[in-house]
Amino acid sequence: MLDDFILRAALAGLGVALAAAPLGCFVVWRRMAYFGDATSHAALLGVALALATELPVIGGVLIVALIMALIVSSLSERQVSTDALLGVLAHAGLALGLVAVSLVPGQRVDLSAYLFGDILAVTIGDVVMIWFGAVLVALLVVWRWQALLTATLNPDLATASGGNPRREQLILTIALAITVAVALKVVGALLIAAMLVIPAAAARPFARTPEMMAICAMILGAIAVFAGLAASFYFDTPTGPSIVSAAAVLFALTTGLSPALQRR
Q1: What is the domain-level CATH number for residue 200?
Q2: pLDDT of 48-82, one tens digit each?
Q3: Residue 175 near residue 137, CB atoms below 8 Å
Q4: For residue 259, what pLDDT is reported?
Q5: Which positions of the chain have pLDDT values less than 70?
Q6: Distance between CA atoms of 33 and 198, rounded to whole angstroms?
Q7: How many domains are there within the chain?
Q8: Alpha-carbon dihedral 55, 91, 183, 230, rounded to 10 degrees
Q9: Given this model, what pLDDT does residue 1 score?
Q10: How far apart are CA 229 and CA 181, in angstroms?
C-alpha cells in the first residue's frame, strides 16, 4: 500500500498537470514563456501578503498573481521591448517577494518550500483547492477554446469575425493566475513556468491539431508528475525539481523522435 502522503502528492501533481498543460499550449503558441515566469515569480509577494494579513496562502498568491498578470498583459501591448519588460518584471517580482517575506514580522518561513514546492506536505484541503482551481481553469479553457485559438493564431481574423482578442487575453491571464496559485505548493515559484511550457513543447511532435497537442501535453504532464514522484521516492531527491526534470527528459525524448514522426 502506498502511504497517504504519496497518494495526496500524486493527486495534487495530477491536478496541476491537467490545468497547466492546455494553458501551456497557449503560452507556447503565443511565445509567452516569460509571461509565465513574471507571474509565477511574483507569487512570493502573494506569500508575503498572506503571511502579513493572515489570508490563506493560496488566496494571497492568487491576488498578486492576477495583479501581476494584468500588469504584464497591459504593458506588453505598448511599444516596449516585450522580452526586456518581462525579464525585468520576472526577476524584480522574485527579488521583491524574497525581501517582502523576510520583512514580515513574527514569521519564520521555509523559503525553499515556496521556491521549489513541497508537494509531499500537501493536505487533503490543499488537494481539494488544487483540483477546484484545475477544474475552473479547464472549464475556462474549454468554454473559450475556439475563441482563444482564433485570437492566438490570427487576431485580425478574430476581430473581423466579431471576436475580441483583448477579452481572450484577459481570460487567458485569469486562467494563468489561477494555475500559478494552485501550483505553488507542488513545484514552487521558480518551476511553475516550466510545468506550463515543457509538457506543451514536448507534445508538439505528436500533434496534428491544437486539440491533440493539448491532450498530449496533459498526458505527458501526468507522466512527468508520476515519474518525478517515483524518482524522488527512490533516490531521495527534491520532489518539485524531480517532476520538472522528468518533464525535461520527456521533452528530450520527444524532440529526438520528432524527425522520425515527421517522416511518417
Answers
A1: 1.10.3470.10
A2: 888 888 888 888 888 988 888 777 777 666 655 56
A3: yes
A4: 57
A5: 1-3, 75-83, 107, 257-264
A6: 10
A7: 1
A8: -130
A9: 41
A10: 21
The grid coordinates listed for 154 are: 490570427
The CA distance from 70 to 117, in Å, is: 24
Cell of 40: 509565477
Question: Rounded to an integer, what distance in angstroms lies between the CA atom of residue 213 and that of residue 259?
Answer: 17
Question: Among residues 163, 249, 231, which one has the least CA distance to residue 13?
Answer: 231
Taken in order 248, 239, 117, 226, is the CA torsion positive or negative? positive
* Residues in the chain, overall count: 264
Instruction: Write out the residue range of the structural domain in which residue 130 sits.
Output: 4-263
Cell of 13: 501533481
Q: Tell me the CA distances in angstroms from 92 to 41, 109, 179, one per residue in order.
A: 8, 20, 21
pLDDT digits (tens, 9 = 90+) for 215-254: 999 999 999 999 999 999 899 899 999 999 999 999 999 9
- The residues, any chain, with a CB within 8 Å of residue 231's CB and separated by 6 or more, are 237, 242, 245, 246
Return the HEC string of the chain.
CCCHHHHHHHHHHHHHHHHHHHHHHHHHHCCCHHHHHHHHHCHHHHHHHHHHHCCCHHHHHHHHHHHHHHHHHHHHCCCCCHHHHHHHHHHHHHHHHHHHHHHCCCCCCCHHHHHHCCHHHCCHHHHHHHHHHHHHHHHHHHHCHHHHHHHHHCHHHHHHCCCCHHHHHHHHHHHHHHHHHHHHHHHCCCCHHHHHHHHHHHHHHHCCCHHHHHHHHHHHHHHHHHHHHHHHHHHCCCHHHHHHHHHHHHHHHHHHHHHHHHHC
Q: Are 51 and 101 in contact (CB under 8 A)?
A: yes
